[in-house]
Fold this sequence. Notes:
Layout: H1 2-11, E1 13-14, H2 16-26, H3 36-46, E2 50-52, E3 60-62, E4 66-69, E5 76-81, H4 86-96, E6 100-105, E7 108-116, H5 119-129, E8 133-134, H6 137-143, E9 164-169, E10 174-177, H7 180-185, E11 188-194, E12 199-205, E13 208-211, H8 214-222, E14 230-232, E15 237-241, H9 248-256, E16 263-265, E17 268-272, H10 276-292
Parallel strand pairs: 4-8
Antiparallel strand pairs: 1-3, 2-3, 4-5, 5-7, 6-7, 9-10, 9-11, 11-12, 12-13, 14-15, 15-17, 16-17
Amino acid sequence: MNELLFWASAVGSGSGSIFKRRATELVSARRGAPSAFSRAIWSFNSLAHCEFGEASGEWWRVTPPVLAAGGPAGAVSAVLCGARSAPLLGRLMAAAGDSANVTEQRDGPDVIRIDMACADDLIRVSGQAGLPIQWNAPLAVMAAFVPPPLASFEESTVPTGGWAVERFSSSKTAWVASTVAEAVRAQRGLFRFKSDYDTRHIYKLAGVTRKVPPGIAKYWALGRRQRAMRLDLSRGQVSFPIAARPPGLIDRALVIASGALPALEGGRLTYSGINAPLAAVVAASLRAIATGADS
């Protein structure tokens, strides 16, 4: 993933076909895992290295480099997000010295973390390296999250034909087998239609069918009293079932709290470096998503 990030940083932006080709060339395939292309999109988006789709203005673009920090009180830490180059890394390592920590991760570029005794020290490193600081970065990301109401998505019809159909079960927090007939009859629920060439997600409420993004729609299905999120503040961790990964910016905010992608443990995705204010905002945002299903 390091080589792919260096390439993306040099190119800046481009088409999906070019990114897919380079990801396939530079990222090793792994048996039983999603494609190199899918893993690269997930990690680069979560780690705030790239924007994809509508957020990018094109198909993809690399984000400007920044030191994503926590609060400025007491000892401070920051992770490097965005574009990377050899000269940039050289300046940062020279400025940070022994306070720089580089950690490999399986499905993403190396985590580059700077740990300093106080905010003034990080500001000094920032100036010498020529990198801006974003203080309270996870909370800043969450501030940009506005849950979309269900009514903002276009009405559709239930797909028919040779699809494999699944329904998202709120009790199991998992996809379970379903049928087209069940989707047609349902008054409420999230359904996934898969074929060899396409995957579609629809959400039904009061019999109205809409095409929806699955990350948001799962939390409509889970409802206001969802129990997907588990918090362990003593360890600075929060976890979610694999099938209920937090959507979009929420996932990004949780990832950049530590700079590391979530660990897969016992069928759950576990994020680290989580403090009480971030956990509270995330929980409130997930409840707000559920509210949007009825607005």
